[in-house]
Structures are given as C-alpha cells and as structure tokens.
C-alpha cells in the first residue's frame, strides 16, 4: 500500500516536496491531500500537483482518516502550534526544520507524540542523503582514524527575504541555516552533548543574528567549528578531520551530492525535477520521504537517522547560542 501523505502549507517547500515525490514510485507514495489557510492557495496547489483532496483549514486535514502522515511545511513560528494540532489528532508528523522556536516547544512536541503514540521526525533531510549515509559508514569503520575536528560552513545571502530577517517570522541565520551545520556535528559525534559551547555573532537591526561563529568542545579532546551567515556566500562545505585522514562533504553540505575521502571523489547524482524548484537539490527531499515510509512500515515512532533526542539536543544548543549572541524571540517569554 502506498503511504498517504497530507501536506500542511502550500508554500515553496511544499512545492519542492511534491516535485520530489514524483521521483518516487507511485505505488509507494501518494500525496492525498493539501491543506492551507487559504482555500484558493490550496486549490491552485492541488491543480498544479494533481492532489485529489483540498482543505481550507489545517483542522480538516487533521480529521481526515485516510492520511498516514502529515508533512508540516508552514513557517517555523507555527510549527509548535500546528504540530500539536496534528499530534493530538493522532497523526504521524514529519515537521520541517527548525522543529520549533526553542527547546521548550520541541520538548512539548516530543511529549505529545509519545502521549499519542505517533511517529514524529524533524525534517533534517540532510541525514537521509546517500552522502550522509556513507559518512556514517566511514566513521563506523574509523576510515579516518579518530575524529579530532569537525568544520561546517553555510553562508547564503538572503537579507532580501523577509522570513530570514524579521524577528516576528523567526528570522536569523541560526534557525534557518545554522541548524544544518550543528546537526552535522551532532551526527558525527553520535548525538553527544558538547562539554562547552562558545558563540560569537553580529545581529541585524531587527534583533536577529546575521552571522555567527560557534566553537564546541566534546569529550576526548574533540572539537567542532561552525560558521553561518545570511549576509555572505560561503563554500557551504563540511570537513571531518581525523588522525588518519579527512572526509569532505562538498557544498551544498545540507543537500550534498559529492563526497571526498582522502582526495578520492565520489558523486551521488540526484534525479531531475519535473517542474522548476525553489531551493537547491530539492529532489533530494525524496530520501526523507522514503525514510519516513520505511519507519512507518516498521512501526517506528521516530527515525534512527534523526532521533528525537538529537532534535532536542540540537534545539538546546541553539538556545544556548542565541543566549550568548543575544537573540530573544517572543516565544522565549512564554
């Protein structure tokens, strides 16, 4: 039986997700419904992507008994509220990153998933890419000896995009793109909590972070360095340096197709999209969709590739970075 998906939100990421789905077998994945607060938007979206059911409210989607899993593609300021709506309606949820605005909200989502015995995953799509699977395999084999330093960089000029710069829309480099650098470090160090975090950054006039550098120390004298910015263009690569060599994930490190291990390069090409995409390499969203399907078939309530404990730790680290850099959202006061 095909996994029946319900899309929540008819924005840019939901478009790319729908295009990515077309690269997967129809007997495995079907987008059965689209919900948007604007019925017109939903209808338009459904027409473009041939989706049979259209809902003008999220509540209607939550009540649809035929939906196996909801893909939450709304703005992250809404993730907590809308996520709770679906979890309490006993719906499995794949929630776009960042999971929520702070660790308190993330813990409430995780708690709601457990209480209602449903699947929940933060859509850190990077973890589902073949390149990341290969990195995990190499690390398990100690292919570069003992890892001493992990570096991850992500810089993308997007000061012209309101959701990137406005505080009310959850703007800033950290929540939008820094999350990818930090999750990479946590993946390499197996979800271990860092012993120390030192962050320094510069803010925009709106009070959100424009550029941030983070240094983390882990046990056994291991370190990580992350830099991210919404003002400058970086190479967007990630490097794992060990006592016997290095693993380099070439940019874009958050949706990579090229891996270099001790100067040996391997390509992992993506399928071509059937419609123009909004974001880089978005047909790679197919990997997380398939990961979700496999988890549901096995009866898992979370993904081993992006466990909920990793999501909680990731958000706790982001909370600490914001505290050090001086970014406060209205959600932090509640």
TrEMBL record:
Segments forming domain GFO/IDH/MocA-like oxidoreductase: 133-247
Organism domain of life: Eukaryota
Keyword flag Cytoplasm: no
Keywords, in A-Z order: Oxidoreductase
Name of this protein: Trans-1,2-dihydrobenzene-1,2-diol dehydrogenase
Gene3D superfamilies reported for this sequence: Dihydrodipicolinate Reductase, domain 2, NAD(P)-binding Rossmann-like Domain
Reactions listed under catalytic activity: D-xylose + NADP(+) = D-xylono-1,5-lactone + NADPH + H(+); (1R,2R)-1,2-dihydrobenzene-1,2-diol + NADP(+) = catechol + NADPH + H(+)
Record-stated family: Belongs to the Gfo/Idh/MocA family.
Organism of derivation: Ataeniobius toweri
Keyword Disulfide bond: no
Occurrences of domain Gfo/Idh/MocA-like oxidoreductase N-terminal (ranges): 5-121
EC number, as in UniProt: 1.1.1.179, 1.3.1.20
Any matching Pfam family: GFO_IDH_MocA_C3
PANTHER family the UniProt entry points to: OXIDOREDUCTASES (PTHR22604), TRANS-1,2-DIHYDROBENZENE-1,2-DIOL DEHYDROGENASE (PTHR22604:SF105)
């Amino acid at each position: 039986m095909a996994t029946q998906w319900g899309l929540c939100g008819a924005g840019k990421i939901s478009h790319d997700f729908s295009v990515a789905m077309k690269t997967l077998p129809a007997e495995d994945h079907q987008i059965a419904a689209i919900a948007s607060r604007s019925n017109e938007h939903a209808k338009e979206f459904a027409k473009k992507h041939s989706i049979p059911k259209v809902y003008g409210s999220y509540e209607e989607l939550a009540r649809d008994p035929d939906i196996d899993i909801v893909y939450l593609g709304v703005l992250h300021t809404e993730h907590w509220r809308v996520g709770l709506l679906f979890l309490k309606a006993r719906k499995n949820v794949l929630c776009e990153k960042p999971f929520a605005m702070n660790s308190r909200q993330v813990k409430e989502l995780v708690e709601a998933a457990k209480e209602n015995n449903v699947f929940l995953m933060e859509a850190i799509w990077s973890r589902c890419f073949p390149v990341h699977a290969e990195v995990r395999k190499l690390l398990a084999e100690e292919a570069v000896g003992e890892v001493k330093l992990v570096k991850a960089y992500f810089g993308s000029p997007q000061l012209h995009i309101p959701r990137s710069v406005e505080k009310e829309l959850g703007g800033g480099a950290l929540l939008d793109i820094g999350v990818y650098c930090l999750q990479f470090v946590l993946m390499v160090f197996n979800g271990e909590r860092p012993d120390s975090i030192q962050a320094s950054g510069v803010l925009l006039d709106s009070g959100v972070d424009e550029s941030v550098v983070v240094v983390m120390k882990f046990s056994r004298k291991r370190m990580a360095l992350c830099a991210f910015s919404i003002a400058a263009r970086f190479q967007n690569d990630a490097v794992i340096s060990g006592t016997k060599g290095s693993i380099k994930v070439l940019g874009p490190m958050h949706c990579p197709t090229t891996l270099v291990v001790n100067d040996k390069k391997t390509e992992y090409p993506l399928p071509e999209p059937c419609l123009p995409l909004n974001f880089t390499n978005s047909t790679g969203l197919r990997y997380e969709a398939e990961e979700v399907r496999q988890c549901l078939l096995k009866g898992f309530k979370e993904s081993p590739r992006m466990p909920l404990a990793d999501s909680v730790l990731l958000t706790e680290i982001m909370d600490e970075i914001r505290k050090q850099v001086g970014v406060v959202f209205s959600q932090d006061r509640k």
